[in-house]
Known about the structure:
The chain is α/β, with parallel strands linked by helices. Helices cover 45% and strands 16% of the residues. It has helices at 8-14, 16-24, 57-71, 82-88, 108-119, 134-138, 157-178, 185-205, 208-214, 230-244, 279-291, 305-310, 322-343; strands at residues 28-29, 34-35, 50-55, 77-81, 96-102, 123-128, 141-144, 221-225, 248-252, 270-273, 296-301, 313-317. Strands 4-3-5-6-7 form a 5-stranded parallel β-sheet, with helices on both faces. It has a 5-stranded parallel β-sheet with strand order 9-8-10-11-12. Strand 3, helix 3 (57-71) and strand 4 form a beta-alpha-beta unit. The longest helix has 22 residues, at 157-178. It is globular, with a radius of gyration of 19 Å. It starts with 7 loop residues before the first helix and ends in an 18-residue tail after the last helix. The model has no long low-confidence stretch (mean pLDDT 96). The site of fructose -6-phosphate has 14 residues, from helix 3.
Amino acid sequence: xxxxxxxxMLKEIHEQPTSLRQTLRxxxxxxxxxxxxxxxxxxxxxxxxxxxFVACGTSYHAGLVGSHFIGSRGxxxxxxxxxxxxxxxPPVDExxxxxxxxxxxxxxxxxxxxxxxxxxGARTLAVTNVVGSTAARECDDxxxxxAGPEIGVAATKTFSSQVVxxxxxxxxxxxxxxxxxxxxxxxxxxxxxxxxxxxQRILDYTKAHRVAxxxxxxxxxxxxxxxxxxPVALEGALKFKEISYEHAxxxxxxxxxxxxxxxxxxxxxxxxxxxxxxxxxxxxxMKEVEARGAPVVAVASETNEEIVQxxxxxxTIPDTHPDVAGILANVQLQLLSYHAAAQxxxxxxxxxxxxxxxxxx
Length: 361
Ligand code: F6R
């Protein structure tokens, strides 16, 4: 059942402290910096020279976070939309690891991208929530995200667990291929260990309900982010349109001035995601939209006074490592979408035209 919540989506958002603890259990020790992934002991990926992620929808956004994490630590990595992978035909060889990110393990587009990679001679790995799923059975290897069953059509807790899993897998890959721990390994692992408590703090203190109400008569909702949280801007917009049926778009913060700024008016609130890295640049993008009269809602650390001073509203997140901040920001955006949809009386757990698992190409 829904455990006292009005919707599975809200229940699953609130389960994240627990599901994240399950995802992390036994896999990382911040004190020593050790990473212990059941099927992937040190050296597992020594032969790998590049990584490609294939996925759809929310899982694609998790893949984008994963390739940013790995790429910025020195291992070439790219993320592809699974439905585009066949037609964009990226080269693969036996030193390529192709990672299918799929909660259900049954998404047809992702399965066919993985089959194509396999036929090209790549090594394949499924990152999935479902033991015994087609992706888990067909790939050379599988990593389970252990989020527990997700009933709501909108993916919430599985996104958070995918990103954590890809960070752990990313650390393993970087160590095996680059040959040493990344410089900030211990900081990342302690930020991950703190994540369940940090998410709980957001759930306890969020103002997302009030912010959703304040902007509910808007024409359109824009989300911007840079670097590790560009995918969080995309995910914020996907979730928002999926369950509220309001128009929403996510942009790389730096791209606004290359076109989308033409759409910005006082009736288009802009949600700007900050991580503590590259904030100065995103702050100037925030000022660009403010100059056009748009309200700006910052999703940022409560300790960043300059951002707090400029924004019309702030959805705060606890201070953490910049590569982990996106998971926290995304929890605030999940709550924003949920409350916006609830106030509009939408059928949150079963949005029109959508299915939980898409088994046709
Ligand atoms: C959005 C959503 C979808 C899925 C996508 C991939 O909330 O749930 O975009 O993320 O259909 O599904 P999986 O991860 O099962 O391959």
